[in-house]
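Handout, tutorial session.
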Amino acid sequence: MFKRVHVYYSGRVQGVGFRFTVERIALDTNSLTGWVKNLTDDRVEVVAEGDEEKLNDFLRSISSGLMKRYIRREDIIWEEVVGDMDDFIIKFY
């Protein structure tokens, strides 16, 4: 089943390569679309769409991988698929 996940990561998640790591994990997971970006309140926001199992693998890889030590909190919101993305990118704005 296809799903959309919206995640906010808090902690020391900016200035440590977090966005680039998330992008790499998404691209390695295959078939995920979405984006990752820094927020002005020092959190990182991620939106991804794809197969629910692959999304769960993606989230597990982020929270248990190299970036684990920087994450203090993750707020995960499951949503309906919108289908408005073609690939996974880093947003710089």
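The second record follows below. Compare its token runs with those of the first.
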Amino acid sequence: MLDIFSKLFQKDTNSKDVAKERLRLVLIHDRANMSPELLQSLKEDLITVINKYLEVDQEALEVNLSNVDDSVALVANIPIVQVKRSL
């Protein structure tokens, strides 16, 4: 978790670090055997289901694959605008 914060607030990144991060993301996607199109489709489906119960900021919603303890995890950051009270 600290690794994520350090990357977010790190001021000087060199091209080696950027290339390393891109390669890491490519490897994660390859391990999960999920194309970018499939990930986008999953994101759209998640929005559809979640919108049934919550109003979310669709522009800020992020869905990514992440490497966690030698496995791949689906990580979603879903900003909630408000809870829908009635179904």
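Points raised in discussion: The CA atoms of residues 47 and 58 lie 7 Å apart.
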